Amino acid sequence: MSAPADMRAGFVTLVGAPNAGKSTLLNQLVGAKVSIVSPKVQTTRARVTGIAIHGGAQIVFVDTPGIFQPKRRLEKAMVEAAWGGVADGDMTVLLIDAQRGLTENVERILDGLEQQGRSIWVVLNKVDLVKKDELLGLAAPLGEKSFIDRIFMLSALTGDGVSDLLDELAGNMPAGPWLYPEDQISEMPNRLLAAEILREKLFLRLHQELPYALTVETESWEERKDGSVKISQVIYVTRDSHKAIVLGKGGKSIRQIGQMAREELTELLERPVHLFTFVKVREKWLDDPARYREMGLDFPKG
Ligand code: GDP
Ligand code: MG
């Protein structure tokens, strides 16, 4: 089976430091929310795909966890998933937060990408926060690196400059048949997407270390005859005190969080959603391979 000459398809991996705006950009490129976003670092835990069709090309974008020097096991798994995404993609796009600039961490990521021996494109993101001359000052040293083919400047938040990037990416995809049905916007199963949506609301609502010490799983998914869907989700925390915070006084906090998640799920699934959330204390979930599997991560030894 050979593809028509004008059909193109491929995988583009988005990498960068935590909070560079990778997930925000993915959602802009796809034109729908497929990856969760919060002001907190390490919101994205595993590879998330979003699929766009543009200029005859089907582009499968792979959003990745931020790259940094990991200490804990979950962090190691996340950073490994990000580098795995780079190895698997047809192209790599490195996002740099233009306001933060070339931090030590960004320099380390650049070194790592150079060692992969393939050229990359760079996006200077958050141009809405930075003056033009600062941007040019940031682009200059990057332009001297031979493994960087192109540099784009855009705002993933406002969408300014995103269509230029999309045009160029589409033109650069390898020839070949499309990989997914035309109307598919993600590879992620609905159960995982639903868990991510609740986790986003928890990240937005809870403070300090708590978001990092919890995980969400969809336990059951029941399509009902009346066209609605009943979804049960478990929030795993590591301590009783965390459970109390997630629940809030008289369950007020979890009710509000669940309500936000339910509204978003209703919109996404285009049908009524009955959402049931349970908080369970599981002291050692961060050392449990099954929890990593559920998130789509490999379990790092040690
Ligand atoms: P990720 O960790 O790289 O996936 O970053 P996110 O997409 O989760 O974004 C981190 C934070 O940066 C969020 O609060 C976003 O709203 C914000 N953000 C992302 N892109 C932009 C941008 O272009 N401009 C501004 N002002 N904020 C942005
Ligand atoms: Mg992200």
Question: What does this protein structure show overall?
Answer:
This protein has 302 residues and is α/β, with parallel strands linked by helices. The protein folds into two domains: 8-171, P-loop containing nucleotide triphosphate hydrolases (Rossmann fold); 190-295, GMP Synthetase, Chain A, domain 3. It contains nine helices and nine strands. It has helices at residues 22-30, 73-88, 104-115, 132-143, 162-172, 190-205, 240-247, 252-269, 289-295, and strands at residues 8-16, 48-54, 57-63, 91-97, 120-125, 148-153, 215-223, 229-237, 273-281. The longest helix has 18 residues, at 252-269. The protein starts with 7 loop residues before the first strand and ends in a 7-residue tail after the last helix. The mean pLDDT is 96. The structure holds guanosine-5'-diphosphate and magnesium ion. Guanosine-5'-diphosphate binds next to helix 1.
| Share of residues in helices | 25-40%
Total strand segments: 9
Considering the protein shown, what is the CATH homologous superfamily of the largest domain? P-loop containing nucleotide triphosphate hydrolases
Strand content: 15-25%
Tell me the series of helices and strands, N- to C-terminal.
EHEEHEHEHEHHEEHHEH
Name of the top-level CATH class of the largest domain? Alpha Beta
**Which secondary-structure class do the elements indicate?**
alpha/beta
Cα shape: globular
Q: What is the residue-mean pLDDT, rounded to a whole number?
A: 96
Q: Determine the number of helices (DSSP H or I, runs of at least 4 residues).
A: 9
Please, how many domains? 2
Give unreliable regions as ranges. none
Strand order of the largest sheet: 2-3-1-4-5-6
CATH topology of the largest domain: Rossmann fold
What is the rounded Rg? Answer: 20 Å
Tell me which ligands are bound. guanosine-5'-diphosphate, magnesium ion
Separation of the first and last Cα atoms: 45 Å
